[in-house]
Amino acid sequence: MKNCDFGCNNEAKYILKNKKLCCSKSSNGCSKVKEKKKNSFLILDDEQQICSYGCNKIAKYRLSNGKFCCKNYYRHCPQFRLELSESKMGDKNPCKGHTEENKKRWREQRRGKNNSMFGKKHSEEAKKKIGVKSKQKIFSEEYREKLRITSTGRKQSKEQREKSRQRMLNGLASYMHKFKKNPSREELKLKTIVLEFYPEAEPQHTIFNYSVDIALVDKKIVIEYDGYYHFNTEENKKYHENRQKRIEGEGWRFLRYTMFDKFPTAEKVKEDLKKLI
C-alpha cells in the first residue's frame, strides 16, 4: 500500500477527487495538513508589530505569507475592507466605464437589430401551435404521472389515488386546513376581531367537507374574507358560489367581506353581526 500524498507518512486509505491518496476521507483530516494550518496563523505575544495592511493597529497574527495582521485573516482587516469597498465605486472599479461603442452596440441588440431573441413577432398560427403544445405538456396523463412520482416519491395506482381523494373529500382536507400556518393577513385580523366579541367562535370550522374561516355554531353564522384567489378565475368563482349555496341550504347565514371593500373596523363587524343575530 502507498503512503499519504500530503506528507504524514501514514497508510493511504482513500482516493480523493483530485486523484491524490490520503489517510482520511478529506485532506483536512490529515494530521500534516492540520499542523500546517495551525502554523499558518501564529499569535504574536512578545513581538509588537504594526499591521501590514495599513490600519496602524498592533498586529496579533503572523500570516502564512509572512505579513503581520490585526486579524487572523487579512480580508477582515478594517483598512483592507475600506479600500475594497472604495474600489467597487467610482473610477477604480474595473466593471465601470464602458465605452460608448459598446453601449451603442448593446442598445441595438436589445432593440432587435442583431438579436435573435428580442423583437420577434409570432403569427396567430404559431401562437395557437405553441398554446396547444403547452397545454398537451401540462395536462397530459404522462406529465401528471411524472409529477405524482416526483412529489410522492412512489408510483401510485388509480385505486390508491381514488382512496386518498375520497379521504380528502370526507373531511381530511378541512381537518388539515385547521393547521395551516400562513393564512392571509386580513383573515387573521378578522379572526382576532370576532374572537374579542365572541370567544366561543370556531376558526376553520368544518361544514360538509368545506372549511369556513370563522363560524358561530350556535347561531349558524359564517364569517369569511375573500381574497385574490376567490376571483382570479371563473372556476374559483363558481366553486365558491356553489359552496355557499350548499352551506346556506343547511340554514347557515354568511357575513362576507372582500378585497374590493375597505377592511372593516371592529365596530363595523359588531354591527353587521348584530343585524344577522
Describe this structure in words.
The chain has four domains: 40 residues, no CATH class; 52 residues, no CATH class; 44 residues, no CATH class; 96 residues, VSR Endonuclease (Endonuclease, Chain A, 3-Layer(aba) Sandwich). The radius of gyration is 34 Å and the shape is elongated. The mean pLDDT is 79. It starts with 13 loop residues before the first strand and ends with a helix. It has nine helices and nine strands. With 277 residues, the protein is of the alpha+beta class.
What keywords describe this structure?
277 residues; alpha+beta; three-stranded antiparallel β-sheet; 9 strands
Question: What's the number of domains?
Answer: 4
Number of helix segments? 9
**If you consult CATH, what is the topology of the largest domain?**
Endonuclease, Chain A
At the first level of CATH, the class of the largest domain is Alpha Beta
String of helices and strands: EEHEEEHHHHHHEEEHEH
Shape: elongated
Walk across the major sheet and give the strand order: 6-7-8-9
Proportion in β-strands: 5-15%
- Helix-strand makeup class: alpha+beta
How far is it from the N-terminal to the C-terminal residue, by CA?
Answer: 88 Å
Biggest pleated-sheet summary: 4 strands, mixed
